[in-house]
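User: Thanks for the earlier help. One more: PAC domain-containing protein. Can you show the sequence and predicted structure together?

Assistant: Of course, both are below.
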Amino acid sequence: MFEDITERKQMQKKIKIYQEYLEELIKELKTLREEREKGMFEDITERKQMQKKIKIYQEYLEELVKERTLQLKEANEQLKKEITIHKEYEEAIQKSQQEFATLFKNSPEAMV
């Protein structure tokens, strides 16, 4: 999924922007709910319109959360794969270093 660090950083930046957008929508939804609860909407028509708007926001937010959750799961899976590969490389390097050290110690001639 991520070809390099730049692509990963770009994805992280997009996710952060996406998260800020979601937080702003949630704030707006809370404000709408608070206003509704305080009885600021005297007109029943206006109240119904706001309820529809709230329902639309809730559905939209639920969809955004699902999408973001999927993106985060995919990113986590990719990171797990990268960590596994990195560990395999690290183990291979350590094994190679140990083999080299053994050869050096067991060499009859001094190496320069």
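User: Great, one quick takeaway?

Assistant: The first helix runs from residue 5 to 37.
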